[in-house]
Amino acid sequence: MTEGIRARGPRSSSANSVPLILDIEDFKGDFSFDASFGNLVNDLLPSFLEEEADSGDGHGNVDGLANGHLRGQSTPLSSAPFFPEVDGLLSLFKDACKELVDLRKQVDGRLNTLKKEVSTQDAKHRKTLTEIEKGVDGLFESFARLDGRISSVGQTAAKIGDHLQSADAQRETASQTIDLIKYLMEFNGSPGDLMELSALFSDDSRVAEAASIAQKLRSFAEEDIGRQGAGTAAGNATAGRGLEVAVANLQDYCNELENRLLSRFDAASQRRDLSTMSECAKILSQFNRGTSAMQHYVATRPMFIDVEVMNSDIRLVLGDHGSQPSPSNVARGLSALYKEITDTVRKEAATITAVFPAPNEVMAILVQRVLEQRVTGILDKILAKPSLMSPPSVQEGGLLLYLRMLAVAYERTQELAKDLRAVGCGDLDVEDLTESLFSSHKDEYPEHEQASLKQLYQAKMEELRAESQQVSESSGTIGRSRGASVSSSQQQLSVTVVTEFVRWNEEAITRCTLFSSQPATLAVNVKAIFTCQLDQVSVYITEGLERARDGLTEAAALRERFVLGTSVSRRVAAAAASAAEAAAAAGESSFKSFMVAVQRCGSSVAIVQQYFANSISRLLLPVDGAHAASCEEMSTALSKAEAAAYKGLQQCIETVMAEVDRLLSSEQKATDYRSPDDGIAPDHRPTNACMRVVAYLSRVLESAFTALEGLNKQAFLTELGNRLEKLLLTHWQKFTFNPSGGLQLKRDLNEYVVFVKSFGAPSVDEKFELLRIIANVFIVAPDSLPTLFEGSPSIRKDAQRFIQLREDYKSAKLATKLSSLWPSMS
């Protein structure tokens, strides 16, 4: 590559420089303007540099020269030009510009020439391509015509082939028909004569071919007989009879051949020769689709013909003879037995798959035989359906044992069905077949379940009565006065017993869920079973409350027995008082026993309601109205217990009021409220009768506070408080009060008010507060009585009765003084 543009000729500083000669080659490749420009001017610039160096040496101060001028000097330099080569450079640049213009014209000329040549060549090329495209189109048309001819020839050849194949098939069919007619004529000889048959039918190596031909002949002959049976012509009838001979002979031959193959199959089976078994099964499949071979194979399995296998199954599930099997042992035995059956079926499945052309059909027959023979045999041993008229005793397991056995057997057999389905059972609906094994048991299941619950209930009641009788006998002859409390305490309600009822029902509902596949059926059965429990709980707690009430009734009878008249001797009165104390103790014991019974009754009802909410209600939803009906039945069943509890609580109030009345009558002295004015300091304690009554109520009502809850507790205590208030009013009207006695009454009332506040009954609190106000009539002076109740006219009537109990009522002529103010006093 050239280094740049160079000037051709000698270097000179004059304007008449030698013209430049530029070469077009200088512009090819990696062209650099700087390098080209330097090569162009370097021949002129070095002469200027040498002269400049010489001028600097002569003058000694060139530092003052800047931009062509001297600094600090007013005198200019020599008149000689400062850049003498400028003319040469200008000439050089002009020549170079001229040369460049000439080169550009040369390049443009060449480009025009090349454009013309390219255009000419492009036209030629396009013309050539057009000619080639026309040739290719013609070639494609030739190929299309050739492909059409080839396709036409192929179709013609295919038709010829089809005709040839059809002709060959017809020829083959005709040949086979000729052979079949010949064989049919052989079978159409004498009835039972199979001695003159072709060698084909006696050659063991051609058994498959013989079986196929015999089946074809038999099918043809039977069809012909069917057609002839519809005809009426005599000739047809004769032909029909002739073929009937052939059909009979063919049937005999097929039976004989089938027996031979079955014998060969059995022999191969004993040797475990699977290939021979498979060959025989394939041939036998032509006889009734191989049904006889399949059934024969299944029937000859050891588990169906070996008696020892069945005995082993019974021993595995039921254990030794004479022992009572338990559900848990039966469950383990069935699990082991069914596992062994599944393993056996799995091994047979491998053989069946290798031998039979239709293994699914054989597996269906095998599994069906397993369920109907082996499983049914063991189920019949463990599920002896008991009679509802004379069920087995509870000591023998009762109906519950049968139901538990049924549940265990059903659950394990369902698991077996799933395992057999996994192994393979063809098109057999193994689940439906399993259900059919238990159909007779499931049809009567609800009746057996309810009968079992009733049997368990009766047995439990007998057990409780026996325990009560045993305790009663072991206690000996306890005082007759305490007989009621002892009797009732020994037959007290038990939450444990109700919990046991619920546990029975839970177990029954679990079985019901297991046996009832349809939600509607399940809801109906669950409702019946739960209703049975409701009846049992209702009867149990009602009878328990009635027994507790009997104690209250007996205590009341004891109190009535020792009520004496006024004119009795001191000795008789002392004996009666002692007996009354014993009756009071019996009453208190009976009260506490009844409260315990009420508490346990409430706990039992809560258990049943919680059980219904958690376990029963959701199962009743699929049937419209079932949930509401069960709630109504539960309310009705428990209403009997509520009625007994209400009567008992009324008796409890009567018992408490009777004892309070007895304590007040025996402990309250006339001098308590009419103490003499003897100067002795007054006693600021309540009267002995008041303290005895409050102590008694605090002691006896402790059990009520514990046993009762909510509205029941509030209603009971309110009624008791009202009765207590009335009793105290009646009691105090028997006495005469002086001012000191009025103060004593106020102290008693304060004690009663403090006590009844624990009842939490506002109406009772209000009545006792009014009593405290009324008691002021004994304290104030007679002149202050008219103004005492001016703001409380509602209690004026009771106040009037109390005023009449004042000691000075007559002496102070209070009736006359108050009659003008309170007309009712007159």
From TrEMBL:
Task: Name the keywords, alphabetized.
Answer: Coiled coil, Exocytosis, Transport
Which InterPro entries does this entry report, sorted A to Z?
A: Sec10-like (IPR009976), Sec10_HB (IPR048627), Sec10_N (IPR048625)
In the UniProt record, does the keyword ATP-binding occur? Answer: no
Q: List all membrane-crossing ranges.
A: none
Q: Where is the Exocyst complex component Sec10 N-terminal domain?
A: 87-203
Has keyword Glycoprotein?
no
- Where the record annotates domain Exocyst complex component Sec10-like alpha-helical bundle, the positions are 209-817
Q: Which family would the database say this protein is a member of? A: Belongs to the SEC10 family.
By what name is this protein known? Exocyst complex component SEC10-like
